[in-house]
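Issue 218. Parser rejects a valid record. Input:
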Amino acid sequence: MKESTRTELEAAAFRRLVQHLQERTDVQNIDLMNLAGFCRNCLSRWYQEAASEQGVDIDKDSARDIVYGMPYEQWKATYQTEASDAQQTAFSKQAKHD
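Output the parser choked on:
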């Protein structure tokens, strides 16, 4: 496979992942962290780091806007719920294994 084709496929898969996360507002970041070890904030940080590696300056808020599809504070106010005791306990256990 040509490198350019691989890059295009990876970019398409990334865009689909972001779209999926934007559509699944019912899935909280803590759920993602507990199950997969990453969340929307991680993805936006990775995006920002990749941009930096390419010499492109993207700030934290802009990277989050790309992943969340809206300003992060708006997403939190609209969709974020209070973490349950069970979610917090699972997160604490998961964080100890990292």
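Fixed in the parser; the record now loads. The two ends are 35 Å apart (CA to CA).
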